[in-house]
Structures are given as structure tokens and as C-alpha cells.
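note to self: dont lose this again. the chain is below, predicted strucutre after it. 149 aa total, dont forget to put it in the shared folder this time
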Amino acid sequence: MKSLIVKFSAVIMLMFLVTGCWNSDLKTGWKTYKNEELNFQLNYPETFVIEADENKVVMYHFKEQPVPYFVINVYKEPIAEVTKKLEGKILGEEKTEKNGMDSTKITIFNDELKANIDTYYFEEEGTSYSFSCLNGIYDEICETFEFIN
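---
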């Protein structure tokens, strides 16, 4: 009987690990940012500071940090109009899916980072939203973005 309990416990723990239901560093202590005017929400680490206006949401790890850590840009126009402004800078463009939503992934070369950066563009009711999902914490924040209709 004891070995059956041990085996059962091992199977349950394995299921949690495989499905991602139990992970000690999986967004522990994160908060939810919800902006009803801009029609989206996402989760972020509790140590981040957020500044928002009608055109963007900026997250800093520390307020004294010289550059934003994560930025969501909001454009009051369709994606096609927004991306026209990037002509000549676009290295790649593809229709894709991100977080279960249709998106457009645009790749440009970032002079400051000296790297190609993928930026995801979403459109909801004529308004476009964009953000870059770099590795690490950026990607974890990106995964939580959703519209709140």
C-alpha cells in the first residue's frame, strides 16, 4: 500500500511538472495590469513600475533605470498604416499567431541593441498594439497579454 501511495504521488508530481501547473518560478508574486481604456491586460513582476498614457504602457524594473524594460505601444490606426512608417527598415514580415490571437510579426534591425528584433502587432477594432518579446522575462510578460473585450 505504501509503495502505491509513493507511485501515485510521483505520477501526480510528474503531471504538474509536465503540464506547468507547478513551477516555483512561474510568475510567483506577479501582478495584473489592466487598462480598460486601451482594452488589454497583462501580468508583470511585482518589482516593476508602470507608467501609462493613451499611447503606450512602459514598464521599468526600477524607476531609476535609464531605459524601459518593456513597452506596449498603442496606435489609433490599423496595422497596415503603422507598418507603412517602417518601410525600408523591415527585414521580415509574417502573419502569425501569438497568445491564441492573429498577429503580424515584423523583424527590424535595432541599432542600439545591434540585433534583429521581432515585434508583434495586434489589431482590435481599428487600434493596433505592438511589443517585442525578447527572451527571458520579456517573453513571459508577452505570454500574458490579452484583450479584455
